[in-house]
Amino acid sequence: MAFAVPISFSAWQALLNNFAIEQVAFTGKEMGILQSLREVPGFLAFAVVFVLLLFREQTLALTSLFLLGLGTALTGFFPSTIGLYLTTILMSLGFHYYETMQTSLTQQWIAKEHTAETFGKLIAIGSSAAIITFGLIWLGSSFLHLDFKWLYLLFGGLTMLIALIARFSFPAFEQQTIQHKHMVLRKRYWLYYALTFMSGARRQIFMVFAGFLMVEKFGYSVSDISLLFLLNASLNVFFAPRIGRLISRIGERNALVIEYIGLILVFCGYALVESGKLAAGLYVLDHLFFALAISQKTYFQKIAAPEDIASTAGVSFTINHIAAVVIPALFGLIWLQSHALVFLLGAAMALISLLLATLIPRTPQQGQETCFVRPAQL
Q1: 189, 246, 201, 179: which is closest to 352 by C-alpha?
Q2: What kind and span of H or E run contains 176?
């Protein structure tokens, strides 16, 4: 399943800016609205706990994966503003519900001492699929001159096929702990919620505007964007498992501090950059720093009660997307006035995240969720 997700989502993302500008005549305003709509299913991820009253987590993960492929496959056939909005919502519904289930199942099935490395391996597997996807997009657009609709159909169809194969080829795996089937919000998880909220706000700057900068300001083509994504994915295959092992060695607090300091510098670089090659370098660094966000998931696994994991996975995705629903549209308007201001605001968000990360204890566990709680109080 980890291999199947990037086949659709990476293709959708790599083609989006060129498809939106060249065929649907998007400006920053429409792109901001589109990205806000894309985040609505993530904002509604808390509802996953109610869906789990009807379906097992594994079944819901596979169904969501199929919807991700379907939304991607249909995108190129609706080259209009409304059409792109609707296919994006369908694609996003599958993507966000799948990601919620993947996080939940990994935290439930994998021992704590191996979770960071496992998440790193999942990123590497997904990046391998992304490499194949970006390479095929580059070949299809540069040499075969395939239309957008055939590219979207190819990659969306492959994800749907893998989802069907996984549905009928693998057994239903048993869960060790029965999960809550209602929303869970606990005061002792407040730092995790705050980090998750800031992560969602900050990530939109990268997801929405960094790629848009490449196309609008520096004139990157579909082939250029595909090669840039291909480079990112190649580096992830090599670095992501190692980043997972690094987190296990240095701890969540130190890993997040490194990530946020790096992102502050990268966002300031975006605000000032005037060279397309330098912007591409910043984009690659940006992508690598985000792999350190594995630390948030392993931090929660260490402080959480086992029965809270599935419910909190949905709730945390909603928290992650509260700002994400608003920021793309709002910052799309700011973008029309100043590209630099958008990225400087992103640097400010990374600074807030850095301050929050310093509150993580060096050995987080149940009862010691923040540095305000000392071992003597346990």
Answers
A1: 201
A2: none
Could you give the C-alpha distances from 119 to 127, 263, 312, 360, 368, in angstroms and in order? 12, 21, 18, 20, 23
DSSP 8-state assignment for residue 95? H
Whether 71 contacts 87, CB under 8 Å: yes
Q: Which of 55, 54, 94 is nearest to 74 (CA)?
A: 94
Question: Does 109 have pLDDT greater than 90?
Answer: no
Structure tokens at 142: 């540069």
Q: Which amino acid is it at 185?
A: L
271 three-class SS = helix
Distance CA 222, CA 312 (A): 38
Q: pLDDT tens digit string along 170-229? A: 888 777 666 556 567 788 888 989 998 888 888 778 777 887 788 888 888 767 877 787
Structure confidence at residue 376 (pLDDT): 45
Structure tokens at 344: 């400087």
Q: Give the whole-angstrom CA distance, residue 10 versus residue 7.
A: 6
In the chain, DSSP finds a helix count (H) and a strand count (E) of: 15, 0
Mean pLDDT of 143-167: 91
Contact 296, 256 (CB under 8 A): yes
- Burial tier of 352 (Cβ tally within 10 Å: 0-12, 13-18, 19+): middle
Q: Provide the H-helix boundaries in the chain.
A: 4-22, 28-43, 48-51, 57-75, 81-109, 112-142, 148-169, 190-204, 211-216, 222-250, 252-272, 276-290, 294-303, 309-337, 339-357
Rounded Cα gap, residues 331 and 320, in angstroms: 17
